[in-house]
Amino acid sequence: MLALFLAPVAAELPPIPAEARQQQSARIVVAQVVSVKELRVDSPGDFSKTVFEATAKVQSVTKGSGVKAGDTLRCTYWKAGKRPQGWAGPGGQYQPLVAGSKVTLYLTAGNELLNPNGWDKL
After folding, report:
1. Nearest 5°: CA angle at 86, between 3 and 46?
2. In a domain? residue 71
3. pLDDT tens per residue, the chain (122 residues)?
4. What is the DSSP string of 15-82?
5. Domain containing 61 — which CATH number?
6. Residue 8: inside a domain, yes or no?
7. Strand order in the sheet with 102-107
8. Mind giving me the DSSP string for 2-34?
9. Among 11, 65, 93, 112, which residue has the fewest nearby CB atoms (within 10 Å)?
């Protein structure tokens, strides 16, 4: 007799495919991450999340307007805090940005990273 045991698992969003990420981005820039600030946000009746603000020096712009090489850009992203067992849904960015890294940023019009894979390390 074959018995199947199903356990609840947490599942995040799958990565956005490269072509879709290009289309969904309002801006795409290559930049050097200067700093990353972390802020914990707890909302009543909501799950906790950590919000990050990264400051980056733009080296080139692949898509979008309002920013050019040499500009300093601030962008935000988030990572989910503790969730109940079996929870599934958006979890924010897979990995945090790291100061000193050269990256490609895939941004919304409001300078938020696309979730869940809004940047690539170069």
Report:
1. 165
2. yes
3. 444 444 444 456 789 999 999 999 999 999 999 999 998 776 756 678 889 999 999 999 999 999 999 999 999 999 887 777 777 667 789 899 999 999 999 999 999 999 999 999 99
4. PPPHHHHHHH-SEEEEEEEEEEEEEEE--TTS--EEEEEEEEEEEEEEE-SS--TT-EEEEEEEEE--
5. 2.40.50
6. no
7. 72-80, 49-63, 27-41, 102-107, 119-121
8. ---------BPPPPPPHHHHHHH-SEEEEEEEE
9. 65
User: Looking at the domain assignment, is residue 5 inside a domain?
Assistant: no
Record the pTM: 0.84
Cα–Cα distance measured from residue 67 to residue 42, given in angstroms and rounded to the nearest whole number: 32
Q: How many whole angstroms separate alpha carbon 17 and alpha carbon 33? A: 23
- Please give the tally of structural domains in the chain: 1
Domain with 88 in it: 18-121
- Can you give the pLDDT at residue 47? 76
CA 3, CA 5: separation in Å to the nearest integer? Answer: 7
